[in-house]
C-alpha cells in the first residue's frame, strides 16, 4: 500500500480529510513531489505518479478545486456540455465512457453540464464555465453550422473540442461521423433491395449532422432514383413514442412507403414498433436502415439494416483533442472524420465502419 511500509493502513476517512501531507507520509515522497505528481508535471517519473495516484485513490483524497484554481489558475476539470434530452440508446453513456477511459491516467476529471433545448440559452452553461473558471476545457456536441458556442470559445481562446463539425471546423478540434455517407449508403442499400419510397426520420435540421444526412440522401437519390419523404413533425432525437406515432401517421397516409431510414437507434426501434403494432401485414415489405451505436438494435429485429457508429472511440479522441488544446494551444487541432464504407463481399453488400 505504501512506498515506505506496505502494511501501513490509510487513515480512517471518518476522522480527518486526507491531504497532500497524508499522501506524502504514506508514500515517502515530499509534499511538493506529491503535488506535482498529482498535477502530472513532466519532470515527475511515471512510477512516482502511479504510486501517488494509487495512494490518493485508496485514501479517498479529493483536491480542493477552489484552492487549486487560486494556486495554479486551473481546475483539472473537463466539462462535457450536452443536451439533457440525449437519446436513450446508451449513446451518451458510450461517449462518457470513452472520455473517462482516456482521462483515467491524467490529472483531469470529467463533469457533465446539461442544458435543456428550447428552454435554456445554449450559451448559458458555456459562459458560466469560462467566466467562472469551472473547467480547463469544454467538449460540445449537437453542433450547429454557425454555432455561437464555438464562435465564443474561439474568440476567448478557451480550449474546446466538438463532437460534430461546424462551419469553422478547419480551425478547431473535432470528431465527427460522416452522416452524409451514412445516409447515402442507406439509400443505396434500400434501393438495391427494390425499395423506391423511403420515409426518413432525420436529426434536427438546425444541427449539422442533420443537414449532412439530407445532403447524402439527395446525392444518392439524384444518382439512382427513387423518392424520399423527410419526416417534418419529429426528428431522430425526439422521444421514441413521438417518433413511433409520426411513423404510424406517415404509413397511414402513404401506403406506398416501403422503407424507413432512421438517423438514430431510438428512431429505428420506434420504426419497428410502429410497423409491427399498427401494420403487421406490411412488416415483410418495409425495410428499415438505421444507425447503430450498440448491438441491441439487431437483437431486437434481425432483419433490420444497420450502420455501426463507435461513440466510445469518439469520446477517446475528443479527450485527446482537448488535452492537446490545453497543453499546446498553438499546435494544429486534432480532427477526425469517421467515414463508413460499403464493401462488396461475394456479391452481397455489407456495411462496416
Series of H and E elements: HHHHEHEHEHEEHEHEHEHEHEHEEE
Structural class: alpha/beta
Evaluate the radius of gyration: 24 Å
Shape: elongated
- Side by side, the strands of the main sheet go 2-1-3-4-5-11
Q: Which residue ranges are poorly predicted, with pLDDT under 50 across at least 5 consecutive positions? A: 1-7, 9-14, 343-353
Write down how many β-strands occur, each being a DSSP E stretch of 2 or more residues. Answer: 13
* Beta-strand proportion: 15-25%
Polypeptide structure, described:
By secondary structure, the protein is of the alpha/beta class. Helix content is 43%, strand content 18%. It has a 6-stranded parallel β-sheet, with helices on both faces. A 5-stranded parallel β-sheet has the order 7-6-8-9-10, sandwiched between helices. Strands 12-13 form a two-stranded antiparallel sheet. Helix 7 (148-156) links the parallel strand 3 (137-141) and strand 4 (160-163). Helix 1 (20-27) crosses helix 2, helix 8 (179-192) runs parallel beside helix 9 and helix 10 packs across helix 11. The radius of gyration is 24 Å and the shape is elongated.
Q: How are the secondary structure elements laid out?
A:
Blueprint: H1 20-27, H2 31-38, H3 46-59, H4 65-72, E1 77-83, H5 91-103, E2 109-115, H6 123-132, E3 137-141, H7 148-156, E4 160-163, E5 174-177, H8 179-192, E6 197-201, H9 208-224, E7 227-230, H10 240-253, E8 259-262, H11 265-278, E9 287-292, H12 296-300, E10 305-308, H13 311-327, E11 335-338, E12 341-345, E13 348-352
Parallel strand pairs: 1-2, 1-3, 3-4, 4-5, 5-11, 6-7, 6-8, 8-9, 9-10
Antiparallel strand pairs: 12-13
Helix pairs in contact: 1-2, 1-3, 5-13, 6-7, 8-9, 10-11
Amino acid at each position: 500500500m505504501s512506498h515506505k511500509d506496505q502494511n501501513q493502513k490509510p487513515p480512517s476517512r471518518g476522522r480527518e480529510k486526507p491531504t497532500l501531507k497524508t499522501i506524502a507520509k504514506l508514500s515517502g515522497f515530499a509534499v511538493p513531489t506529491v503535488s506535482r505528481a498529482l498535477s502530472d508535471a513532466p519532470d515527475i517519473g511515471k512510477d512516482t505518479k502511479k504510486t501517488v495516484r494509487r495512494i490518493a485513490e485508496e485514501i479517498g483524497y479529493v483536491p480542493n478545486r477552489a484552492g487549486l484554481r487560486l494556486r495554479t489558475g486551473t481546475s483539472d476539470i473537463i466539462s462535457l456540455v450536452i443536451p439533457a434530452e440525449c437519446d436513450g440508446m446508451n449513446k451518451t453513456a458510450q461517449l462518457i465512457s470513452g472520455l473517462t477511459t482516456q482521462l483515467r491516467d491524467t490529472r483531469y476529471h470529467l463533469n457533465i453540464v446539461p442544458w435543456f433545448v428550447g428552454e435554456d440559452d445554449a450559451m448559458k452553461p458555456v459562459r458560466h464555465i469560462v467566466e467562472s473558471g469551472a473547467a480547463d476545457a469544454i467538449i460540445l456536441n449537437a453542433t450547429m453550422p454557425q454555432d455561437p458556442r464555438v464562435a465564443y470559445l474561439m474568440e476567448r481562446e478557451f480550449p474546446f473540442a466538438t463532437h460534430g463539425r461546424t462551419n469553422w471546423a478547419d480551425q478547431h478540434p473535432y470528431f465527427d461521423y460522416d452522416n452524409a455517407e451514412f445516409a447515402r449508403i442507406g439509400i443505396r442499400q434500400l434501393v438495391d433491395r427494390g425499395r423506391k419510397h423511403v420515409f426518413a426520420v432525420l436529426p434536427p435540421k438546425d444541427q449539422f449532422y442533420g443537414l449532412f444526412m439530407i445532403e447524402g440522401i439527395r446525392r444518392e437519390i439524384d444518382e439512382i432514383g427513387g423518392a424520399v419523404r423527410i419526416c417534418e413533425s419529429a426528428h431522430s432525437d425526439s422521444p421514441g413514442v413521438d417518433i413511433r406515432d409520426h411513423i404510424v401517421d406517415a404509413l397511414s397516409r402513404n401506403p406506398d412507403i416501403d422503407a424507413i431510414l432512421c438517423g438514430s437507434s431510438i428512431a429505428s426501434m420506434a420504426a419497428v414498433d410502429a410497423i409491427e403494432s399498427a401494420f403487421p401485414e406490411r412488416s415483410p415489405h418495409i425495410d428499415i436502415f438505421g444507425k447503430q451505436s450498440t448491438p441491441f438494435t439487431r437483437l431486437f429485429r434481425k432483419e433490420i439494416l444497420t450502420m455501426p457508429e463507435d461513440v466510445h472511440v469518439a469520446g477517446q479522441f475528443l479527450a485527446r483533442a482537448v488535452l492537446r488544446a490545453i497543453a499546446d494551444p498553438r499546435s494544429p487541432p486534432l480532427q477526425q472524420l469517421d467515414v463508413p464504407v460499403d464493401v462488396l463481399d461475394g456479391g452481397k453488400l455489407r456495411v462496416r465502419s
